[in-house]
Amino acid sequence: MTGRRDVVESFIRWVTDGFVVLYGLWTLLCHIALRGGWSFSSLYGLSFLVPLGGGVILFFLARKRRRGQESVSEAETAGVERSDRLSRTVGLAGAAALASFFALSRNLILFWAASVLFLGYFYFRHLRPPPVRPSSPPPRDRSQACVFFALLLAAAVLVLVLHRPDHDDAFFLSIPVQAMETPDAPLVNRRPATDAAAHSILPTYSLHSAELAAGALARLLGVRPITAAHMILPVLFAVVFLCAAARLMRRLLGADWLFGLTALFFLLLFNGDVHWSYGNFGLVRFFHGKAFLAAGMTPLLAAYGLEYMSGTGRGVWPLLFSGQIAALGLSSAGLYVGPVVAGFSLLGAWRPEKRAAARLLLGALTAAYPLAMGLSLRLGPMSDNQVFLETYRSVPPLTDALDKVLGTGVFLWFWLLALLGGWTAFREASKRRWVLGYSLAFVFFFLNPYLNEFWSRALLGVEVKWRILWALPLPVWLAVLLSTLSRQAAAVLLRPGMRGLALGVILALFGALVPARWTVSASNQTQVRLPSLKVPLEDYRLAGEAAALTESGGTILAPEAIAVWVPTITRRVRPVVSRGFSIVYERDRTLDPPSRERVERRLALFRYISGISRDRPKEELEEILRRAVADHNIRTVVLDVRNPWRRDIVTTLRGLGFAKKTLSSRRYLAHILITAGPVSRPQR
Prior knowledge:
Elements: H1 7-36, H2 40-45, H3 49-67, H4 74-77, H5 85-105, H6 108-125, H7 142-161, E1 162-163, H8 168-181, H9 210-221, H10 225-253, H11 257-270, H12 289-310, H13 316-330, H14 334-349, H15 354-364, H16 368-379, H17 386-389, H18 398-406, H19 410-421, H20 429-446, H21 452-460, H22 474-493, H23 499-513, E2 527-528, H24 537-549, E3 555-557, H25 560-563, E4 574-575, H26 580-588, H27 593-610, H28 618-631, E5 634-640, H29 646-655, E6 658-662, E7 668-673
Parallel strand pairs: 3-4, 3-5
Antiparallel strand pairs: 1-2, 5-7, 6-7
Helix pairs in contact: 1-3, 1-10, 1-13, 5-6, 5-19, 6-20, 7-10, 8-9, 9-10, 10-11, 10-12, 11-22, 11-23, 12-13, 12-14, 13-14, 14-15, 14-16, 14-20, 19-22, 22-23, 26-27, 27-28
């Protein structure tokens, strides 16, 4: 050791530890506020307890860490555990063969069985090596710190200039809008009615705290909730993400960590093959809590588990505990992603000895909070909620989940190679055991075709079971493989000092040949523009104009492109239907015939107004429109000038007292009701 203070290590520790402690406390406060029926003002008024309590906790953790023994350096371990090159070569070849088999045959049962045997064989061969000792690289020259902080700056800039808006964003943005517009009402932000007619919302949304964090930040800074959610929180998440990934890379690669981190950074920019890919839940969508859960919390919880089981650091247990609470506040998927990541990281570092078994059991207690919350939901509001359990629907095959996240192209092969052969990149046998144990546990439990229906119905939910793949740090493992390849290429083809050039060539070839489409590409619907809100700018502007034309308490009937953004601007005006997807979802899960017919009428009206289809006779649709104006207090109707039934609709609206208003777009026209007071119901 040089004795110099490692600025990068200190920065990474303070950022990651500070985030999980502060955000974990914020999530706890939000859960207490919701259960206690508090208002948003009460929650905001007590939010000072978060930095106060967080500061005290971080102070004691820092003192405890200084008194304890830090992770041993790479130099202290490099000569202790050297790999069997033949075993690693055979392992990598076997992983490549298994990945090729699945990519070509799509036979999940044989792939699963062979993968369990393959990983199990090598895992049990690695049970006897010494305990895992995470590397702690010695301080280097300033160039390493400069590269790291340059990556931090690049990540912060990218989250501001990359835009890939999605209509899913609108629901989450409507939550802080409602909280700020009704600050003294009880917190009902978990069940906001984004449409004129309320419909069922999954009870798992009661666990979220990210949306309230945007609202509190907006109130503190005097900005709109969407500004806080799209322009401030993503920058914070980008910094924490890179520090979390760097923390795990430093524990795994030692002095080579920066090469692995650079490879990871570019992998996320390449991986736009499918909508739900790791890349699309990375830097381009950090204004979603679930995106940061997938990209940032997974490597951080994995690093905490590795550090805790090593026994070389102190104060990690409360960080692992708080980290899982923070994961829960980011997304309800944290119910299972957090415990799985922490548990498998602990299990991978376990070895057959009493001390390791004791640490494993104690570490497993860090999952107590998310497991307790999940159990309370499962025995409470979800116990008889058929909408959530979906017992009447078939369970999709596991291949559907793999296709959604890993894709079906060349990238799939590399992801499977990282899953089955990521362990071969490490020279230390104990680190190979960690990756092998993690991969084996995940493959055995969650890629098991015989447990597919059980997990789907009992834990994950039919619609979102693919999110369990977020619990795999596959991007980190693939980045480690590419980093190792660059070291070998530099040693054989170049000089060791030219490793950076070798990594650059490998990443360029990878980016050119492997992805079906880059994350940052027009084909992935990702735009690069000046920092602004993550919305379709014209549609959002028109939604604001339509909302301004509508008096408080009224509703808007408009195509989805405009209607979906109205609840993100104000909750005093709501659309009759915000999204076609949401009303179809509601229809498919409504079993009561009269209620289903009401939903069907709203859906038919929405499609008619949007110019999508005319599902019922003209006279019946005109009657549905007249009744909807009274039933939902419709004050504004927005029509696309290309709607094939626009003349018929306008004729009906004129008969109801609507007058035309011009919007700042030649594509849309608004019609507002000019009568005073609510419209009376027509005689039935």
